[in-house]
Specification:
This is Resolvase HTH domain-containing protein. This protein is mainly α and about 90 residues long. The protein has one domain. Helix content is about 50%, strand content about 0%. The chain is built from five helices and no strands. Helix 4 packs across helix 5. The longest helix is centred in the middle third of the chain and has 19 residues. The radius of gyration is 19 Å and the shape is elongated. The model has no long low-confidence stretch (mean pLDDT about 85).
């Protein structure tokens, strides 16, 4: 069995993830993550996070006067998806 030196075992730089960076507004490593549980550890969490972010943007654009049909075209989703996003007020 081959032994690894300490420097080999930890050669990957911890640069965090895009989800944490977006949440706190700057690049951070995993030790300073704003989430209680890593988004990659929880099944479906990554997808849920991106969906919630999209829905928040949809609600913001709707308040700015965009029509649901315009939002559906912009996000390439159906009108029902837009309606659900608008109904799920954050």
């Amino acid at each position: 069995m081959m032994e690894m030196k300490d420097s080999q075992a930890y050669s990957r730089e911890d640069s965090g993830c895009a989800f944490a960076t977006e949440q706190i507004g700057h690049q951070s490593n995993c030790l300073h993550c704003p989430f209680m549980r890593c988004i990659y550890d929880k099944p479906g969490a990554r997808r849920r996070f991106t969906k919630d972010e999209r829905d928040e943007e949809i609600r913001k654009l709707r308040k700015e006067g965009k029509l649901p049909e315009e939002l559906a075209a912009l996000y390439r989703v159906g009108i029902r998806t837009i309606q659900r996003a608008l109904r799920r007020e954050g």
